[in-house]
Amino acid sequence: MNIAVRYYSRGGNTAKIAKAIAEAVGVEAKTVSEPLSGDVDILFLGSAPYAFDVDDEVKKFIQGIEVSVGKVVNFSTSAAVKSTRKYVEKLFAEKKIPVAEEEFSCRGAFAMLHKGKPDESDQKAAADFARKVIS
Ligand SMILES: Cc1cc2nc3c(=O)[nH]c(=O)nc-3n(C[C@H](O)[C@H](O)[C@H](O)COP(=O)(O)O)c2cc1C
After folding, report:
1. How many CA atoms lie within 13 A of 107 on its CB side?
2. Where exactly are the structural domains of the chain?
3. What is the mean pLDDT of each run of 10 residues along the chain (135 residues)?
């Protein structure tokens, strides 16, 4: 099975989760500045919301996908919204790439909120989630 992990992280919160997921599934976590280089069965895509949307870098990455992707598994950190799934799924719909119902999301520190998040327990939960997805 070909698996890829891509993420965008301004402050490092989503990067922590990306690394936990990548380690669990045995690949390298790369940022969205690195396009997919070959067909993948599962793409774990990580992002965070900034003012109720994902960064343009995430949108550019999705719009630029030129390989076959079996399914996308979204993961995100956020201060308030449940996840970033709704921000990315319309872009994937345009590419006819399915986004799995299953996703991983947790709180990420922002200003005075959620200090220390994501923490070790979030990283462990993300790794467990990823292992389940590929099993
Ligand atoms: C400029 C800015 C805008 C944000 N807007 C939102 C938002 O609309 N909804 C939300 O739930 N969190 C929002 N957050 C919180 C971030 O999504 C959260 O801290 C996330 O963990 C950041 O991930 P990162 O460290 O990987 O960039 C915002 C954070 C920043 C810095």
Report:
1. 13
2. 3-134
3. 97 98 98 97 98 98 98 98 96 97 98 96 98 97
State the Cα–Cα distance between residues 46 and 74, nearest whole angstrom. Answer: 6
Check whether domain 3-134 has CATH 3.30.390.50, yes or no: no
Nearest atom in ligand 1 to the alpha carbon of residue 81 is 11
Residues whose CB falls within 8 Å of the CB of residue 86, separated by 6 or more in sequence, listed in order: none
DSSP code, position 15: H
Strand partners, 6: 30, 45
Residue 81 is given by DSSP the state S
Substitution candidate for ligand 1 out of 9, 14, 110 with most atoms within 8 A of CB: 110
pTM: 0.98
Give, for ligand 1, the residue of 78, 81, 83, 115 to mutate: max count of ligand atoms closer than 8 Å to Cβ.
Answer: 78
